């Protein structure tokens, strides 16, 4: 769509972007959207922000993950979606899976050895399980001996926890320093 076509469209830019994101087979970048509508990225970002705001009182959300946008259902309607689709309501993750996900979310991209160094236990089966559930993905290889795989979270991870972006993760609380007087005789 050329910029003159955009100005003659009867729909606002937000509606056009919404339709493009809806039909896209995968999350789309601002650059892809700007090219598709024939306008600059700043204009697209502003329209996406307005679109995101308009979804706050509706059953859909516009989610940004790794610089790409996609439409998802609002976390508040998950029970109804699960019921309609016949999904297992409230499927729980194990403590080990949650622990591993937290490590990956805050330290991504991270190797399996990095995860295990933090957890202190072998994490092969947990990582395989999280990969199978689509909550994490391979993100390439580290520049280390053996070129180990790097892992990061997916957009399904965000959906599972009702987040729109990784910036919504709570800050990590650093442990308080041990009282040094306890270590003295």
From TrEMBL:
Keyword terms: Cell cycle, Cell division, Chromosome partition, Cytoplasm
Record bears the keyword Cell cycle: yes
Matching InterPro entries: ScpB_csome_segregation, WH-like_DNA-bd_sf, WH_DNA-bd_sf
Predominant place of localization: cytoplasm
Subcellular location: Cytoplasm
Pfam families in alphabetical order: SMC_ScpB
Coiled coil: none
Domain of life where this protein originates: Bacteria
Keyword Cell division tagged: yes
NCBIfam families: SMC-Scp complex subunit ScpB
Oligomer status and interactors: Homodimer. Homodimerization may be required to stabilize the binding of ScpA to the Smc head domains. Component of a cohesin-like complex composed of ScpA, ScpB and the Smc homodimer, in which ScpA and ScpB bind to the head domain of Smc. The presence of the three proteins is required for the association of the complex with DNA.
Job of this protein: Participates in chromosomal partition during cell division. May act via the formation of a condensin-like complex containing Smc and ScpA that pull DNA away from mid-cell into both cell halves.
Annotated family: Belongs to the ScpB family.
Protein name: Segregation and condensation protein B
Organism: Thermanaerothrix solaris
Lineage of the organism: Bacteria, Bacillati, Chloroflexota, Anaerolineae, Anaerolineales
